[in-house]
Amino acid sequence: MGDSLNVTEALDESWESPPDAGAEPMTFDQLYERFATDVLRVSYYYLGDRQRAEDVTQDVFVRLITSKPVLEPGKEKAWLLKVALNRCRDLWRGAWLKRVVLGHPAFELFPARDEISPIAENTALAEAVNRLPAEFKEVVLLHYYQGYGVSDIAAMLDIAEGTVSSRLSRARTRLQKDLKGDA
Amino acid sequence: MDRLDKLPEVSDQVLSGLRADDRLKYKILQKATEPEAEKHPLGFRKPVIALSALTAVMVAVFALMAPLSPSSAPSERIHTISAGNIVPESPVNMREIITRASRSMKQAQETESPAPTESPEPAEAPAE
């Protein structure tokens, strides 16, 4: 990875932060280390396909390098997730026919090798979240998995706060029904 | 729904093996630094090439077919319509159809029983 380190250093030189930003801007390495796994897992929850989730994560970070956005300190992850969800949405719409013909991709679990197999209850919850319709899945992942508030989610997804709240409520109802059915 | 509040821990457990590793980081850096032309994979370029080729073929076919298209379609179509069965297939001038149909009927009548041209009263001629 010697080459990549040089590249990273070169990229970091041109990294921009907004004017008057007090905090030091994060480097590509720092952003990748802190947020890439979250981007990957959110994309995986959305698409249910590891390869595609990796492609989305790759696209997001390539865009970060090439378009050099002005990121507000503390809002880097929000930007990364927003770009990831937009990309997931594009892929999801694009793969509609394939999904209809071949069926929904199986949501596999990836427990670490040294870990005991996950409890069935947890597996059921993860699978139920993956089965949610796309617009519900987005808000559930951002709120319950990534811990964003309603107003932050509304800004990230360019929708009204009321829409976020109603989607969250409807998603909860669906999940409740789905998990009762599983039990 | 309390179970949803546990989603971060649940995800950490069920997806703990799914991590953004150095292999992915290397792919990202490679992709970000490669020339613009190589960024789009063949999977993306294939449909674009196919679509361009198809468009070119369609333009060529239309260009070839243009001189062969009928120039005065209504009169050509009317030619095929028999007097007793007027079924216009396209929005052609109905008045023209009726005029032509009645003209052809008149012609048919004339050929069956030709009227003498000298007589001022053609109705009486066949009787004689």
Q: What labels would you give this structure?
A:
heterodimer; A: 183 residues; mainly alpha; Rna Polymerase Sigma Factor, Chain: A; Arc Repressor Mutant, subunit A; 2 domains; 71% helix; B: 128 residues; 62% helix; elongated
The gist of it:
The complex is a heterodimer of chains A (183) and B (128). Chain A is an all-alpha fold.
Question: Any overview of this molecule?
Answer:
The complex is a heterodimer of chains A (183) and B (128). Chain A folds into two domains: 1-108, Rna Polymerase Sigma Factor, Chain: A (Orthogonal Bundle), CATH 1.10.1740; 117-183, Winged helix-like DNA-binding domain superfamily/Winged helix DNA-binding domain (Arc Repressor Mutant, subunit A). Chain A contains nine helices and no strands. Chain A has helices spanning 2-13, 28-47, 50-67, 76-94, 96-102, 120-131, 134-145, 150-157, 161-182. The termini of chain A are far apart. Mean pLDDT of chain A is 81; it is low at 1-10. Chain B is mostly helical and 128 residues long. Among the domains of chain B are: 21-68, no CATH class; 73-112, no CATH class. Chain B is 62% helix and 0% strand. Chain B has seven helices and no strands. Chain B has helices spanning 2-5, 7-14, 22-33, 36-39, 42-65, 73-80, 94-112. Chain B is elongated and about 100 Å long. The relative contact order of chain B is 0.04.
